[in-house]
Amino acid sequence: MVKTLPLHEAFQTLSLPGLERNLFFSFDWFSVIDKTYRTRIFVKYIEEEGKVRSYIIYSVVKNFLEWKICICSYCDYCDCHVTSLEDWNRFLQQIKKEYSRYRIAIRSLRDDLVRQCETLNVLSKEKFHVLDTRADLDSIWKKTTDSFKNAVRQSQKQGVIVKKCDFSELKKFYRLHLAVRKNKYHLFPQPFRFFKNIWHQYMDRGQGVLLGAYDKTGKFIAGNVYLVCGNTLYYKFNTSDRNALKLRPNNILFWEGIRYAKDKGLDCIDLGSSGCEQTGLILFKDQTGAKSQDIIHLGYHPQGYQFSEKRILRLMTKVFTYPWMPNFLVRCGSSLIYPFLA
Please, what are the domains in the chain? Predict the structure, then answer.
């Protein structure tokens, strides 16, 4: 029998195997999502001899943009703890029964079972990178490409300094983040409260850091947000001043991230996902010596599915990312629309 509980109740009453194995399958990350977006998240589970055998964590999205069941919203990937193909099919059958007019969306990194479900179709792929940091720093440095090494040296020669930022500097990071999302990618930035909640959930507890790059005048020109979960450092967010890219701040920031991982005794760095069209970002990650694999986007939609109004989102995004749009209005638009983008 498939049973269902709200996420927080499941955390309190069930022993969930495999929980906390990565950032996107952890209590801390789901807490950030809940505080920021108030997303409806549930656990479906199957028991065997009084213990949870398999379970999935999913969010229910029903708004003016879309109706969908997502495993799981606001995550780079989410591989649930499911022990057999049969159990996966039971979960999917239950979801289709309860939410017959919703589509299903899954982002799978390491779950080979879900890719075998005949109900689901492959929608698209992304690239994922991970860097092994168990070797000494000299060995890690040697595995980076010459282009990466030269960029780090160039940044050092031009006086770029990297340091840990305090909470007051989070606003500097966010201003650059908003500018990059708006002007380069023409996307809504995440609302500032998202980064504020991340800070209180991770940085305040010593489980993350904002590393800032400063030019020789002391100006903040780039920043990386790194989060810690288990034995892994997550390279979660990066932003930089487009006028300062000649100083190569992103390379030196990532090298300092490697040093931070070594100081923490962590085994690897998760560099996250990259759209296959983001060739520059993929090249940068390849140059660090990281290994890549695919994230698979899987999906299902019922016959006659019609609860998707992405044209509204496209129109709003276009309007709010015009070059002349004031940043304070972009922030307002982001706060209003991002909770619907689950």
Answer: 2-125+297-308 (3.40.630), 134-266 (3.40.630.30)
Phi first, then psi, for residue 131 (nearest 5°) are: -115, 125
Q: Measured between alpha carbons, how far is 170 from 196 in angstroms, rounded to an integer? A: 8
- For residue 28 the two structure tokens come to 């801390």
**Two tokens, residue 340:** 């619907």
Tokens of 298: 């899987």
pLDDT in tens, 31-75: 999 999 999 999 999 999 999 999 999 999 998 888 999 999 999
CB 59 within 8 A of CB 40: yes
Rounded to an integer, what distance in angstroms lies between the CA atom of residue 254 and that of residue 257? 5
Tell me the torsion sign for CA atoms 199, 204, 209, 212: positive
Residue range 204-254, pLDDT digits in tens: 999 999 999 999 999 999 999 999 999 999 999 999 999 999 999 999 999
Helix, strand, or coil (residue 336) = helix
The CA distance from 59 to 26, in Å, is: 15
Q: Is the pTM of this model over 0.90?
A: yes
Tokens of 251: 């390379």
Cα 323 to Cα 102, 183, 187, 313, distances in angstroms: 36, 7, 12, 18
The full DSSP string for 224-289 is EEEEEETTEEEEEEEEE-GGGGGG-HHHHHHHHHHHHHHHHT-SEEEEEEEETT-HHHHHHHHHTT
DSSP 75-132: -S----B---HHHHHHHHHHHHHHTTT-EEEEEESS-TTGGG-TT-EEEEEEEEEEEE
Given a contact cutoff of 8 angstroms between Cβ atoms, the answer to whether 265 and 75 are in contact is: no
Cis peptide bond N-terminal to 78, omega within 30: no
Structure tokens at 230: 């288990």
Is residue 225 within 8 Å of 234, Cβ to Cβ?
A: no
- What is the token pair recorded at 60? 């229910």
